[in-house]
Amino acid sequence: MRKKLVAGNWKMHGALQQNTALLAHITAAASGMACEIAVCPPYPYLAQAQSALAGSVVALGAQSVSEHACGAFTGEVSASMLAEFGCRYVLLGHSERRGLFGETDAIVAVKFEAAQKAGLLPVLCLGETLGERESGNTMRVIARQLSAVLDRLGVAAMASAVVAYEPVWAIGTGVTASPAQAQEVHAAIRAQVAVLDAGVAEGLRILYGGSVKPQNAVELFGQSDIDGGLIGGAALVADDFLKICLAAN
Ligand code: PEP
User: Fold this and answer.
1) CATH topology classification for 5-248
2) What is the pLDDT of residues 46-70, one digit of tens each?
3) Which residue ranges make up each domain of the chain?
4) Cβ burial 16-44 (10 Å sphere, 16+ → b, else e)
């Protein structure tokens, strides 16, 4: 039985005072939840979140990481730095990183390796654009994105990772994949891993992300291959985020 995970991606949002209130709300409610909960604030707030989450069951994650361990890479943050600030998870290959910052499948795979070397659990984001869906290429795109990691690191790497299926057309748009559409892709992801190792596939948590709200979370999380959610906009509103966590209980 896979324990569900609900992770909040704050994107480039937050401010010290606002974060204090949001984190206090989440930590106060989290201990009664059956699912695992994580929050992924922007880098400058990791230290604040690390101390706010101390002693709570809420895990900390980051939104990206450098593929390099250290050196002359101005503006970058390494996996070991994230680990030092208490991060358990790191989002990798989010569609905004792929689309706006040129992260290719190959770069994402190198980052995945760097994250695991530092003891972080990568949350590997996969997703097709609207054009790719409409042209019938959804499964091909998802398989290609996943293969980049499997080919580089082997299936064993997926035993210490999480996958998030996030259709690009559903992120921040208010349009969500239907539970059936999401389930179809989640099942395909698990099947691709199962061809290589059935045990790893069975244990792999596959989150859905893309306009998850309290109103649609129960049905999405009720699908057999949906193991929780990666939440953007609704992660900034404590009541909504906690309702989504409850839906995963
Ligand atoms: C995200 O940022 O990963 C995301 C899923 O955003 P939203 O929930 O706002 O669609």
Assistant:
1) TIM Barrel (3.20.20)
2) 999 999 999 999 999 999 999 999 9
3) 5-248
4) eeebeebbeebbebbeebebbbbbbbbee
